[in-house]
Amino acid sequence: MGALKAGNRTAGEVVVTVAACLCIMLMSTAASLYAAGSSEIRPAGGRITGVVQVEGALPKLEPLKIIKDKDVCQNVPNESLLVGGAEHGLQNAVVTLEGAPKEVSSAVRPAYAVFRLTNLGCRFVPHVLVMQSHDELEISNADPILHTARALPAQVDIGLYPGRAVRKEIGAPAPGPVAISCEIHPWMRAYVYLADNQYYAVTDLHGEYEIDNVPPGKYRVKIWHELLGTEVGTVAVTAGKTTEFNFKFDSGKTASR
């Protein structure tokens, strides 16, 4: 019996031809995907971890003077110097990198972010946060009393009735700490630290921090604390490696607030 024909070709020839075409299409598609993906490939970053501590005798903090709305404003802690454990780990120290790229990488944080500061128990929560000037700050009031939030030279000066939340752009003052206060309750204070790039951290209750996906290179490290001031150091970051950077503040040196 003669072979089946498809035009002037056998059925076997048609199958081979179709298979070859599919193979070429798949190879072309894979090449296109690789080419598209290759433009997104970036050098692997490194990680910086460490602990910030205080050495020396710790200063004694005075209790906050609660002078108004005492039925709501009870047991408000003084958070200007929080030190934990026998190792004296320093909480709320800000660690930033100078000279790091300023463009936003989605691997570290979204291009647009909202940071939240809440009036709760007649204190600002969190006590210290870090953001960039193009981000938005949302300030809300979870207390049953009126609060305000004022920060100059930043563009924040608002009244907050119970349950109100307001989003504000900080503006573009120089990088560094911006103090937030309540005009009605003068003991209330928080700090918004403006960083000029996305590589930063705030130490936890053990004084520990971590900054991930840092491009390889050598950087100047700045460590800021509201009571102990600002200190600097240097760190070298290697791709795919974790670099440890620890620091100790001298408790005898306090900054003016």
Task: Write a short abstract of this structure.
This protein is mainly beta. It has one helix at residues 11-38; strands at residues 5-6, 9-10, 46-55, 83-84, 89-90, 94-98, 114-119, 124-125, 128-132, 136-141, 147-151, 156-160, 165-169, 176-181, 189-195, 200-202, 208-214, 217-225, 229-237, 242-244, 247-250.
Q: What's the arrangement of secondary structure elements?
A:
Blueprint: E1 5-6, E2 9-10, H1 11-38, E3 46-55, E4 83-84, E5 89-90, E6 94-98, E7 114-119, E8 124-125, E9 128-132, E10 136-141, E11 147-151, E12 156-160, E13 165-169, E14 176-181, E15 189-195, E16 200-202, E17 208-214, E18 217-225, E19 229-237, E20 242-244, E21 247-250
Parallel strand pairs: 3-20, 3-21, 7-10, 9-15
Antiparallel strand pairs: 1-2, 3-17, 4-5, 6-16, 6-18, 7-8, 10-13, 11-12, 14-15, 18-19
